[in-house]
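#lab-general

N.A. 3:47 PM
ok so I finally got the sequence cleaned up, no stray characters, all 441 residues accounted for. can someone with queue access submit it? mine expired

B.Y. 3:52 PM
send it over

N.A. 3:53 PM
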Amino acid sequence: MDDRLLEPEQLRARVAEQLVRARERSTLLTEAVDDGDLVRQHSRLMSPLVWDLAHIGNQEELWLVRDVGGREPVRQDIDELYDAFQHARANRPALPLLSPLEARTYVREVRDKVFDVLDRSPLEGRRLVDQGFAFGMIVQHEQQHDETMLATHQLRIGAPVLHAPDPEPATRPDRREVFVPAGEFTMGTSTEPWALDNERPAFRTFVDAFYIDTVPVSNGDYLEFLDSGGYDQPRWWSAAGWAHRQEAGLVAPEFWELQGDTWFRRRFGNVEPVPLDEPVVHVCFHEAQAYATWAGKRLPTETEWEKAARFDPATGRSRRFPWGDEDPTPEHANLGQRHLRPAPVGSYPRGESPLGVRQLIGDVWEWLDSGFHPYPEFAAFPYREYSEVFFGGDYKMLRGGSFGTDASAVRGTFRNWDHPIRRQIFSGFRCARDATPAEAR
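B.Y. 4:20 PM
back already:
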């Protein structure tokens, strides 16, 4: 969200619109099911939907009502219940959580106070509120939990309760690879008002020449790997990947099932033949890496991905998004739960990067062969628990957002991370490969 040129009242109006839009989505996701489904844990990997809803309200209360607004607490007694660091997801159903009615009442009361705080806040003079940062942080937090709740809906067993139109067919798949020349570019940002601490500050970095695919790997592509016995041949897998494949019994992407000679998938309660032209989704890092090795390629690094997404060789500058600096529209990318599936590979030509790479934003989060580390001169803000405590470990990076990611919660610099075994997220990938020394000259 680029608010660098907005006057305070324009910024206030836009913040209000973003808050309302996020809440409308939270309401849709929680009112689509009955109270039994709200309090049920659909997977030990996920919280009950009612926990997510009250957690959204609690974070909003902590940061906007109490900190920015300096108001008295609404429900200080529930802070510990909805602290994500205090209770693992698997254990949250056993907590004395707010009931669905109590949670809805609570988030409404908090939101009423937040709008009053927004009306009175100068949106400047203090780093936390300058350019609406705290409000933007809360908008992004709610939208991120909305995507988490959407993933919970995918794990839910039962008749479909969410509905959306399908994306348009791709007019020109444009399946190829493009050359990215060696050189420096600016990674990260120091100017994006709502960028989070791990995206900051901008810095110059050198990238060797490489090739990257113009589109994500499709279901049809992935089926070739599967049909060739890729899941049965350890030579394609890393040692950690092969150990996990065996331990977890992986035989295909999550939610796929072979019926006769045809692969089907379950998608938000619908069972349908796997669409060959869509990006593969619900694969873990290890599966993505194995496919890339089988294909004679590799996964991009995080630095390579961002250069392919943002670098404009004509000007030498880094854009906010692949297509330019303007916010995403439905013509640029598949975002915001507008569709309940990825668009076919090659869609959104208006979202293409200057180097000719498509669908870098939206559709599927893309696994990258990089760990989660701070940028040079990183400084935690406004709290260590957003990024700093996650640096290191076994995390792998994901970039670009998915069809379930809102435009307010993704940009060319946005960084996501998860454990390499995770598949419930809307994750896919594209491939890259090294340039030869002769090509790199």
